[in-house]
Specification:
alpha/beta, TIM Barrel, 2 domains, globular, binds flavin mononucleotide
Amino acid sequence: MKTRLTEMLSIRYPIFQGGMAWVAEHSLAGAVSKAGGLGIIGAGGAPASVVEKELWELKKNTDAPFGLNIMLLSPYVSEIVELAVQYRPAVVTTGAGSPEGYIEKFHSAGIKVIPVIASTALAKRMERCGADAVIAEGCESGGHIGELTTMALVPQVCDAVSIPVIAAGGIADGRGFAAAMMLGAQGIQIGTRFLTAEECVVHEQYKERVLAARDIDSVVTGRSHGHPVRSLRNSMTREYGKLEKEGKSFEELEPLTLGALRAAVVDGDVTNGTVMAGQIAGLVKERLTCAQILEQMTAQAEECLKKGGCWIE
Ligand SMILES: Cc1cc2nc3c(=O)[nH]c(=O)nc-3n(C[C@H](O)[C@H](O)[C@H](O)COP(=O)(O)O)c2cc1C
């Protein structure tokens, strides 16, 4: 499947594996890149030394293009920007802020800059300041989210900018992939589907929780304080929701989520940890390799696109 994105990055499939804090380390990102998608290391809030180890391991195992996701609120952001310049991923994706101040630096190092955005206004601003593409992420996604759905956001962003748009949020099979392309996207970014991939290092309990999830099992916490996060329902989200309703302050709620993603991903605490996953978790029923995921999704998307939306045989 050739698109502006595959041409820009010399990748086989127009599919990014989302940079996910604690989850997207070298085994997952390396497997996706080797299989022809764009594997992305998620720097999250980790110190530069941890991120460097991941970059080093990934580069040791593959020459394929890869990406680095930088969370701009990280206390280590300036060191991680320097690491990017040193390790030269094909792409830096950014979340939690604007990468405006770093774009020139990345471009001088030959790195494409692709920010995650959740509105047309931000997409336009990113285009004006030199971003190479944008990831339009709908609120169906796992993790930190915006307000608009993928279905509403992607076509509006496609109309608002002329740089390529990558759709994210709620895509886990070829039908979602094809739908994103019909909305005008040049590629997709996937998080939730990769949580159960063979090469993904999340704890076995986390994988089982995703595989058992139903369509209504994800919930958003943190709306009252402007930091909405989507994860699977558990004791932690119930307690958080109860305290939010009681009007507790951000400082009172924070202890419930501090270190909670790590607890779920690394220790397998799916009761009190944050089991980030999107609304599409209910569709994820298999453990496949990254290569199988990319192949199956693309074959199914091509089949859907060939039918062109006409379903009467
Ligand atoms: C466990 C988890 C952690 C995530 N962490 C990050 C992150 O650190 N930075 C980021 O930009 N996006 C993060 N995301 C969002 C993904 O990169 C991706 O855009 C999103 O998962 C796509 O939606 P989907 O989950 O419906 O596939 C995370 C998502 C999940 C599920």
